Amino acid sequence: MAVALRCGLVLWIGWLCLRSVRMENVLPLLLFSSAFLPMLSGQFGQPTILGFTVFAAGLTLAARNEERLGTPAELKSPPRANLIRSRSAYAERLHNVNSRSNQTNGSVDR
């Protein structure tokens, strides 16, 4: 019974990781690759292996974060570009060669 439960848990988390890869999120699969063997055949009597397995499986499930990712169609659409309207006041004075104003730039004017 315990072996079937472990195999089912490994298959379920592996399936979730493969679904995340389809949404271009590879981190859960990388974490799962280091955690599936202890989940499948780890000696859970030793606290170190049990702690690593629980921690790695939790990180794997947390890295999925599908609520933030959205659908695959939304991920493939290009992001909106932030258009820059104009230069800052300092950059305008710095790059404006035609007009010489009374403004000084310290040691650069010397």
Kindly state the mean pLDDT as a whole number? 78
Rg over C-alpha atoms, rounded to the nearest angstrom? 27 Å
Helix content: 55-70%
What distance separates the N and C termini?
A: 85 Å
Largest sheet composition: none
Q: Give me the number of helical elements.
A: 6
- The total strand number stands at 0
Order of helices and strands: HHHHHH
Low-confidence parts? none
The portion of residues forming beta strands comes to: under 5%
Shape: elongated
Which structural class matches the secondary elements? Answer: mainly alpha
What does this structure look like?
With 110 residues, the chain is mostly helical. The protein has a domain at 2-76. The protein is built from six helices and no strands. The protein has helices at 2-22, 27-41, 47-64, 66-69, 72-76, 89-95. The mean pLDDT is 78.
Question: What would a concise description of this structure say?
Answer:
The protein is mainly α and 110 residues long.
Tell me the layout of helices and strands.
Layout: H1 2-22, H2 27-41, H3 47-64, H4 66-69, H5 72-76, H6 89-95
Helix pairs in contact: 1-2, 1-3, 2-3
Features:
about 0% strand; mainly alpha; single chain; about 110 residues
